[in-house]
Write a structure and sequence with these properties.
The chain is α/β, with parallel strands linked by helices and 394 residues long. The chain is 45% helix and 11% strand. It has a 5-stranded parallel beta sheet with strand order 4-7-10-3-11. A two-stranded antiparallel sheet has the order 1-2. It has a two-stranded antiparallel sheet with strand order 5-6.
Length: 394
């Protein structure tokens, strides 16, 4: 793709529409726009509707059956880039591009996709954006818990109608998975290993035969082209409800790692904090990059059990200290600065969030945090304000 060195990136605010076929869309009704803008969090296909529309218009590559975009366009949507017309697509995932390519190509086959990794490594985020770009619908979601039963994966019944009419198609309540099969879309299953093993194995027939039997109606639902499943699982849940070997064979597993280096993680936190700040309408100034860098540095050093330069070994707390938690710490600090300060993020605004993220165990983690404050933060040039603020809240 050629780049015009004289052309400036063209970037506009997302419009409130989930349709992104090849032609430009008509303007959304003002009432609908107002309704979407009042939402705390829009679905990916709503928030980034204009990017998806521009990609569809620029996308002349071959698309798998029932996909809204080609694999090239889905990759561009996830990783960002500039289109030939100068339109700038924002990156949704900052990290190893090859992992995203593997995930996308998996969904173009008959294999389901399992996104695996530590908590806070953007598994759900990537899953949502893959579904938005490929199917135009990220809402066919099943949240896995210990209480998730077979009906959440297969189908349920409207019991009022069932008592009156008996088992009929009208009394059937389709699950998101069944809906995805009927419409040729992607179904998302969050926290798959939180679901009991017996219920997990309900997926085996669906993933291998691409059919969902309904014996009560003596019929079945056969999946349309384009159907697939994206599941997520935390490796912290290993041993809770491990997937059977039969089910594992139906998935391609992509492990999403923690950010490779400090700069990459700072970029992720900075971008997500800016996005969330706009959504929450926080009346605070954009946080100084140095404050974000300090939070990320603390998290990385405690996570890895050593200082960045490797000169000092550290005790590791019980929590994960993920990138998602770093984003939460900075956002909480911004809220404090906006409503109880002068709108500028300072050390005192970060101290409580840092302590809350690190000290999960009030005995063990408190010792770890105090030792870090004394041996690292106190001795680090330019960190005295953060040291004093953290000492006050420990």
């Amino acid at each position: 793709m050629k780049k015009d060195s004289q052309q400036q990136p063209r970037r506009r605010e997302p419009k409130a529409t989930a349709s992104f076929e090849g032609e430009a869309q008509s303007s959304t009704h003002p009432a609908a726009e107002q309704s979407l803008s009042a939402m705390l969090r829009q679905h990916a296909e709503q928030q980034f509707a204009e990017e998806l529309t521009e990609l569809a218009k620029a996308d002349s590559r071959q698309r798998p059956p029932n996909w809204r975009l080609s694999p090239w366009a889905v990759r561009t949507y996830l990783l960002g880039g500039r289109l030939s017309n100068g339109f700038e697509v924002s990156p949704k995932y900052i990290g190893n591009a090859r992992l995203i390519e593997i995930a996308i190509s998996t969904l173009a086959t008959d294999r389901a996709l399992l996104l695996y990794g530590l908590p806070g490594t953007a598994k759900s985020w990537v899953s949502e954006h893959l579904a938005a770009a490929i199917a135009g619908d990220s809402t066919l979601l099943i949240q896995g818990t210990a209480g998730t039963d077979e009906s959440a994966l297969r189908y349920g019944w409207n019991y009022a109608r069932l008592l009156v009419e008996g088992p009929t198609p009208a009394a059937l309540v389709a699950s998101p998975l069944m809906t995805a099969m009927r419409e040729g879309k992607l179904a998302r299953i969050e926290e798959l290993t939180r679901i009991s093993s017996e219920v997990q194995d309900t997926l085996i027939t669906i993933l291998s035969e691409k059919t969902l039997p309904i014996p009560e109606l003596n019929t079945e639902v056969q999946a349309r082209k384009g159907f697939n499943v994206i599941a997520t699982a935390n490796n912290r849940d290993k041993g809770v409800n491990d997937l059977s070997s039969a089910l594992m064979r139906r998935f391609n597993t992509v492990v999403l790692p923690l950010p490779q280096n400090l700069e990459e993680e700072v970029r992720i936190v900075e971008r997500r904090v800016a996005d969330l700040g706009r959504a929450l309408e926080l009346p605070a100034e954009k946080p100084a990059l140095e404050e974000i860098r300090r939070v990320v540095t603390i998290f990385r050093e405690l996570r890895e059990g050593k200082t960045l330069d490797g000169s000092l070994k550290l005790k590791v707390p019980s929590g994960t200290l993920s990138t998602a938690e770093a984003i939460s710490v900075v956002n909480s600090g911004l809220a404090l600065a906006a409503y109880y300060g002068d709108g500028t993020l300072r050390a005192g605004d970060l101290a409580a969030g840092l302590t809350g993220a690190i000290v999960k165990d009030p005995v063990q983690d408190r010792v770890v945090w105090l030792e870090y404050l004394q041996t690292v933060m106190k001795e680090r040039t330019g960190w005295q304000d953060l040291y004093r603020a953290c000492r006050e809240v420990v």
